[in-house]
Amino acid sequence: MKKQGDSVRSESDAALRTRALESLLVEKGLLATDTIDKVVEKYEKDVGPLNGARVVARAWSDPDYKRRLLENGTAAIAELGFVGREGAEIVVLENTSTVHNVVVCTLCSCYPWPVLGLPPGWYKSYAYRSRLVREPRAVLREFDLHLPDSVEVRVWDSNSDLRYMVLPERPEGTEDLSEDALVPLVTRDAMIGVARIESPWA
Amino acid sequence: MDGIHDMGGMHGFGPIIREENEPLFHHEWEKRVLGMGVAIPVPVPGGSRNNIENMDPAEYLSSSYYEKWLHSRIRGLIDAGAMTPDELESRVALFREKPDAETPVHPNPDGVRAKFGKRRPASSAPPPVDIRPQFQGGDRVRARNIHPEGHTRLPRYVRGKTGTISRFYGIHNLQDAELPAGCVRREQPLYAVRFESRELWGESAEAEDAVYLDMWEGYLTPAQSDSE
User: A161-187 pLDDT, tens per residue?
Assistant: First the structure.
C-alpha cells in the first residue's frame, strides 16, 4: 500500500533530477554552488527552534517584552535578531490555563522558519494537515497531551502570509530561574502547540 | 482551486506518524532542493504553491515535501523560459550515463543574476491610503462560497460558514490568482476570523473549540446576527 512520500519514481530519480537541475543552473549562471551550500548551512546551524526558545524565555522573564511580543510579534522577535524567510510577519499566540492555541497549515506547510527552523515531517503530513482543524483534541492525545473541557482549543490555520508561533505557558516552579536557564525548557513542539511544558520538578 | 492539496477536514489519512530523532534532511538531494528553492533568482510564474497544487493528484499524494518543491521549481524555470524540458532531460541522461561528468561553470554569473533583479517580498508595496476595513472586531461574517479554478487561500472547509471577526491585521496583498467578484484591488484588509467547531463540523465536532483563519476582506460578506 502506498504511503505519503512513497514516490512513483525512485529516490535515486529525485537525486538525479536534482543534480541535473543544479548543474544546469550553475552552467547558466543562475546559481552558484556555494550559494546553495550557504543556504543549507544556515538552516542546519543557525536557524532553528533555539531561536524561538530564546524569544519565549525573554517573554517569560520580562513582562514588557511579553506585551510587545503579543502586540507585534515580528518586531519583538526582530529585537533578538531573528528575521528572514517565512517570517515577514509573525503573530505570537499566548497559551493560558483556559486557552490552548495550536498551529497548522492545511493547504501546504507554512511554518515560522526564523523562530522554529524547518518544519518536522509530521507537521507537513497529510494526517496532521487534515485532522487538526477537525479533531484537535484527538490529535493532541496522539501527542500525549490531554486537555480538560475547561480549556478551549483554538486551531490556527496559516492560510496567509502571516506565520504563527505559540507562547507556551510558563511551567510552575520556574519562578527563580534566570532567562538563560529557562531557554532549554522550551521545546519546538510547545511552540507549535502540540505540547505543554511541564515543570522541571514534576 | 478545489484540489487535492486542500485537505483540511478530510478523513482517511490515519494517525500522525512521528519519526524519532528525525534528521533535518533525509537525503542529500533534499538539501540541494532547499538551497535552490530559496536562492534561485528567477521568480516562479504563477507562484510556487500554484505549481504544486496543479500536480496530478496521485503524484501530489505520493510525492514527498521536497519532491513537490523540486517539481514546482522545475515547472517554474520552464515557464519563465530559463530552461527547456529537453535541456533538463539531456542533463539527466548525461548524469545517468556518466555519473562523474563535470558541470561547466558560467563565465559571468553575476551578470546573469543581475538581469533578474532583487525579489521583493509579497507585502512590500505600501497600500493605497484610502482603504478602510469594512469589519470590526465582533462582527459576524460569512466566508464566500467561491470556487476559483486558480490559486486561492480560502480552504473548502470554511466556505459558506459564519464566523466572527477576531482581529484586524492591516492591509495585505491577496494572493489568489483571480480577484473574487466585486474586488477591485489586491491590497485588502486582512482579518483573523474565528469559526466555532460546531459551525464547521456540525454534530461531529469534538468539543466547543474554534478554528481561526486569516481572511482577506474579499473572502467575506456580512452575516446576519445569531439568528443566522
Answer: 999 999 999 999 999 999 999 999 999
The answer to whether residue A26 neighbours chain B at the CB level (below 8 Å) is yes
Tell me which residue in B19, B201, B207 faces A149 most closely, judged by beta carbons: B207
- Residue B12: C-alpha distances to residues B9, B19, B33 (Å): 10, 20, 30
**Listed residue (B71, B10, B151) closest to A160, CA to CA:** B151
Interface test with A, best of B5, B6, B18 (most A CBs within 10 A): B18
pLDDT in tens, B61-112: 999 999 999 999 999 999 999 999 999 999 999 999 998 888 777 777 777 7
Annotated active-site residue A160? The verdict is no
DSSP string, B82-147: S--HHHHHHHHHHHHH-TTPPPP--S-HHHHHHHH-PPPPTT-SPPPTT---S--TT-EEEE----
**Model pTM score:** 0.94
| A97 flagged as catalytic | no
Which chain B residues are Cβ-neighbours of A121 within 8 angstroms? 17-19, 22, 65
3-class DSSP assignment, residue A70: helix
Cα B41 from Cα B108, distance rounded (Å): 15
Say yes or no: ipTM exceeds 0.90: yes
Mapped onto helix, strand or coil, the DSSP state of residue A37 is helix
Distance CA B135, CA B217 (A): 8
CA distance A61 to B73: 43
